[in-house]
Structures are given as structure tokens and as C-alpha cells.
């Protein structure tokens, strides 16, 4: 079994740093000392992308040509290929979990009691406002706690579709010591037999997200996962990451803060203010595992001038 080729790399697990939830977070009011606002950006594919709808359809029903009888269809809203907000949030959360001191949110590992305290998924009792949350759970949510960052569905606005085959995929074996991720230079070369409908290279998706009551550093960790900062990460989305799928660049990023006082002073006031991305990323340095980010930059980073 150990002789089988591996198409992933790992990040060593370390105990999470969970803390009580500050009263100034939450969703019931906007704190003037924190950041509330929106992100707008484009995701441009440099590899084919597939996010499945769960449907197997004849290729002609999708307007595609293939020698396969059935093809795994891409998720759609109406007739438009779309990256679900849940998929975007999951991919960005997975990166943030890796390079911060966060829990292992979703795993089939059965932790022992002492391991559960160190690595297990966080939870929160909303009525009693009781529970410790790790950095990723504060941002993206946990059982009993609504997160501070929300991603909208991202429709495809440019690009073509095609049928792309990948090797048969199997359920991953859970690991008690490491998190897995898929470097760009490791590709599964086994026989390709599973046909997927994909958005082809250079496809472009228009994405948006909202955030509420974040510190500058917390917003900075999200921006790092979106490819900004010295590490220039290129997040991977969807299925087939071990088979040459899922690579995307974040471009045209705009980060704006909602100024609540201005919003209600006059009907024609401009309530949006541009946020300094570099300042947020600088504030995030104390919250991240820089050794992990260095590894991610080598395996997921953008080495072209276009990356930032």
C-alpha cells in the first residue's frame, strides 16, 4: 500500500487555538471598531473546473460531444454554469484552516477525548453565548454559530465547456496526523475513465462575498486564501484536484467597507470605502502559520507576474 503513488501533500496537525466568542462579533449589530463590507472578484480558470450537480446525463443533452454514454453534469442555476457559494466557502475555509491554528472541521476520524479538545470540530451554544471557537470557525461558522463571512453563488460569465475524463476516484482514508491538499505539480496519471462536464481553461466566474464585524487580521486571512499577500496562493475548487482540475486565479479583487453612519446621513451619500488590502494582510501575520504558508506557496503559489 505504501508503494502506491500519492497525488497530495500534507500539513501537520497542531492543536487548535480556540477562544471565547467576543460580544462585539455576532450578527445583531454592526460594531464601529470592526470591518463590515463586501468582496467582489473574478475567478479565472487555468485548469478545467468541475463542480457536480449530482446528475448523470447524455452528452447531447448538455450540448456536448463525447464517446461516453453519460456525463457528470456541472452545477447550474437555470442554464448557467455556476460555482455554488458553499463550494467557494468550503475551499477558502479549508485553506484558512490549514494555515491558522484551527480545528479539523469535517473528518471521519474518531478522536479520543484528549484529541477532541485539540483537533475536534468547534461548537457553540447560542442561547447561553457559550463555547470556544478557533479562527476558522469564527470566520466561517460552527455548529450553533453563524459565521461572519458568506459567499454568493458565482455564475460563469465567459468561457467554453467540454467533456474531460479523470481516473476513478475513491473515498480518502482519514488521517489522524495531517491535513491533505493537492499541489499543482502532482497529477494522477492512471487511466481516465470518468467523464465530467467542465468549464474549460480561461473560463471566468463572477464572485461576491460579504463579511461582518471582522478585525483587520481576520479579513487578512481570507484575503491570503484568495491569493493576495506575498504567498500568491491559487486556490483549487471542485472535483478532480488530483487529476489536473480545479486551478483558479483570483483577479480584479475589490474590498469595500460599509460605513453605517454615512449610509443613514443622506440618501445620496457614498457609504462604501475601499479597504487597504496590504494593511489587513500585515495584521494577519500574527495569526498565521508562516511555515505552512511557505509550503503552500511552493505547491499552490503563483510564480507568474499575473498572480498579484
Q: Would you list the SSEs in sequence order as H and E?
A: EEEEEEEHHEHEEEEEEHEHEHH
Number of helices: 7
Unreliable runs: none
- List how many beta strands DSSP finds: 16
Structural class: alpha+beta
Cα distance spanning the termini: 40 Å
For the residues shown, what is the average pLDDT?
91
The fraction of residues in strands falls at 25-35%
Radius of gyration over all CA atoms, rounded: 20 Å
For the sheet with most strands, the description reads:
8 strands, antiparallel
| Shape estimate | globular
Indicate the percent of residues in helices.
Answer: 10-25%
Mind explaining what this structure looks like?
The strands form five sheets. Strands 3, 6, 7, 9, 10, 14, 15 and 16 form an eight-stranded antiparallel β-sheet that branches. A two-stranded antiparallel ribbon has the order 1-12. β6 (76-77) and β7 form a beta hairpin. α1 (85-99) crosses α4 (216-225) and α4 packs across α6 (277-284). It is globular, with a radius of gyration of 20 Å. The protein has helices at 85-99, 113-119, 135-140, 216-225, 260-263, 277-284, 290-300; strands at residues 9-12, 19-20, 35-45, 52-57, 71-74, 76-77, 80-83, 132-133, 149-151, 154-158, 161-166, 178-181, 194-199, 204-214, 248-258, 272-274. It has seven helices and 16 strands. The protein is α+β, with helices and mostly antiparallel strands and 308 residues long.
In short:
The protein has 308 residues and is an alpha+beta fold. The chain is built from seven helices and 16 strands.
Amino acid at each position: 500500500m505504501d508503494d502506491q503513488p500519492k497525488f497530495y501533500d500534507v500539513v501537520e496537525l497542531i492543536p487548535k487555538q480556540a477562544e471565547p466568542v467576543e460580544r462585539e462579533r455576532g450578527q445583531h449589530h454592526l460594531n464601529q471598531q470592526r470591518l463590515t463590507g463586501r468582496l467582489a472578484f473574478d475567478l479565472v480558470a487555468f485548469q478545467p473546473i468541475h463542480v457536480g450537480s449530482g446528475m448523470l446525463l447524455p452528452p447531447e443533452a448538455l450540448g456536448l460531444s463525447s464517446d461516453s454514454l453519460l456525463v457528470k453534469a456541472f452545477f447550474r442555476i437555470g442554464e448557467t454554469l455556476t460555482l455554488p457559494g458553499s463550494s467557494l466557502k468550503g475551499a477558502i475555509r479549508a485553506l484558512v484552516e490549514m494555515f491558522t491554528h484551527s480545528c479539523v472541521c469535517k473528518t471521519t476520524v474518531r478522536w479520543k477525548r484528549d484529541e477532541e479538545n485539540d483537533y475536534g470540530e468547534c461548537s457553540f451554544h447560542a442561547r447561553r453565548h457559550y463555547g470556544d471557537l478557533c479562527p476558522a470557525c469564527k470566520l466561517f461558522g460552527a455548529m450553533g454559530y453563524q459565521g461572519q463571512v458568506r459567499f454568493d453563488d458565482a455564475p460563469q460569465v465567459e468561457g467554453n465547456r467540454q467533456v474531460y475524463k479523470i481516473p476513478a476516484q475513491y473515498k480518502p482514508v482519514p488521517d489522524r496526523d495531517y491535513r491533505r491538499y493537492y499541489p499543482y505539480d502532482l497529477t494522477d496519471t492512471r487511466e481516465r475513465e470518468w467523464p465530467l462536464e467542465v468549464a474549460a481553461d480561461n473560463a471566468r466566474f463572477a464572485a461576491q462575498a460579504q463579511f461582518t464585524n471582522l478585525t483587520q487580521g481576520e479579513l487578512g486571512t481570507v484575503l491570503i486564501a484568495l491569493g493576495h499577500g506575498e504567498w500568491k496562493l491559487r486556490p483549487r475548487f471542485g472535483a478532480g484536484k488530483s487529476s489536473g482540475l480545479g486551478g483558479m486565479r483570483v483577479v480584479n479583487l475589490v474590498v469595500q467597507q460599509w460605513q453605517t453612519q454615512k449610509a443613514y446621513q443622506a440618501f445620496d451619500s457614498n457609504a462604501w470605502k475601499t479597504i487597504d488590502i496590504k494593511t489587513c494582510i500585515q495584521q494577519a501575520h500574527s495569526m498565521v502559520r508562516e511555515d505552512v504558508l511557505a509550503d503552500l506557496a511552493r505547491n499552490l503559489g503563483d510564480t507568474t507576474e499575473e498572480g498579484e
